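Structure in, sequence out. Go:
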């Protein structure tokens, strides 16, 4: 089965994830497995994802696990991301303690929502074997979504991480993503920077919002509910919109070699959340399409500590990074693939192969 030039091939990672997911299932009681396990469907609950502090969240919460079971759950995360990626995930979860302490003073009625014990696991289908399966970790500021087909092909998106505060004490989980964006802007000429900045105000959150599928054109919301005081108009939504066939900002074709390396470095930083095998496959796919076809867009202030947003867009690639809420102290950062989120591309190839075999 050939899938897009084999550019989603990651058999070692697929095998590690399957082994870790099976070990977690084996370590659970029957009632816990019934909460963890879900049917594998092309659409439906598998495509539900959210990084908000939801009052109710489906799945098996970490807080319901014994210490041995927690270790198995964390081993599934470790099998699915890189060690730097794992450090980001657990730092974000630890930041929930800080957020809860701050909310006890500001909004005590919702402070309980910020709790690392509330992060939930879900498994879709049966791990291992040739049939598609996947798993999800969901909680405030973490949404990891993996799909595996044929025991060899891995889709790792949507992959979302966030942090509020953006940093506190020694915790700053996404500081490197922030700095790469600023560093790239500093590397541009005045004319290139003028092209990169598409608007002086950022969107309230991702232009593509929390959608199960990204359409040809997506507009950001007028307001992000947790911060009702920051809004944008219809005309501003249009300026800040995502257009799949018309990337905004400065194109890679207008960059010199050093600048293009810096832009690829932003992509590599996001890919570095994933295991080396998956990260290499993702970067190979981006580079095969042509680094010059990437585009970088910025919105908001270029002064550190103020509201801002950046986007890296290419064929089958979308990175959105915003630090908009809290006046620029609340990060949301996502890697998506409009063609292969939740495994759309690898699943289509899998079903074509199954049909041809009949």
């Amino acid at each position: 089965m050939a899938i897009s030039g084999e550019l989603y091939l990651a058999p070692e990672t697929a095998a590690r994830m399957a082994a870790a997911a099976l070990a977690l299932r084996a370590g659970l009681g029957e009632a816990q497995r019934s909460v963890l396990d879900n049917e594998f469907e092309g659409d439906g609950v598998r495509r539900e994802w959210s990084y908000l502090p939801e009052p109710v969240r489906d799945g098996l919460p970490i807080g319901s696990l014994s210490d041995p079971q927690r270790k198995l759950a964390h081993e599934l995360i470790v099998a699915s991301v890189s060690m730097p990626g794992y450090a980001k995930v657990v730092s974000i979860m630890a930041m929930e303690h800080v957020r809860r302490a701050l909310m006890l003073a500001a909004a005590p009625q919702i402070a309980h929502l910020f709790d690392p014990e509330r992060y939930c696991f879900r498994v879709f289908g049966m791990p291992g074997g040739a049939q598609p399966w996947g798993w999800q970790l969901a909680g405030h500021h973490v949404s990891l979504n993996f799909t595996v087909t044929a025991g060899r092909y891995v889709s790792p998106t949507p992959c979302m991480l966030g942090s509020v505060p953006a940093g506190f004490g020694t915790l700053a989980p996404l500081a490197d993503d922030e700095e790469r964006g600023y560093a790239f802007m500093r590397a541009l000429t005045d004319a290139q920077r003028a092209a990169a900045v598409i608007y002086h105000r950022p969107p309230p959150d991702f232009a593509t919002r929390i959608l199960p599928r990204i359409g040809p054109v997506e507009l950001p919301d007028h307001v992000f509910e947790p911060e009702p005081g920051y809004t944008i108009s219809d005309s501003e939504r249009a300026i800040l919109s995502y257009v799949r066939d018309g990337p905004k900002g400065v194109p890679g074709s207008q960059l010199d070699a050093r600048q293009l390396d810096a832009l690829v470095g932003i992509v590599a930083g996001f890919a570095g959340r994933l295991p080396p095998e998956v990260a290499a496959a993702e970067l190979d796919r981006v580079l095969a399409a042509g680094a010059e076809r990437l585009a970088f867009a910025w919105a908001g202030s270029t002064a550190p500590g103020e509201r801002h947003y950046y986007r890296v867009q290419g064929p089958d690639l979308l990175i959105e990074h915003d630090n908009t809420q809290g006046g620029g102290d609340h990060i949301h950062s996502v890697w998506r693939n409009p063609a292969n989120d939740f495994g759309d591309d690898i699943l289509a190839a899998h079903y074509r192969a199954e049909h041809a075999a009949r």
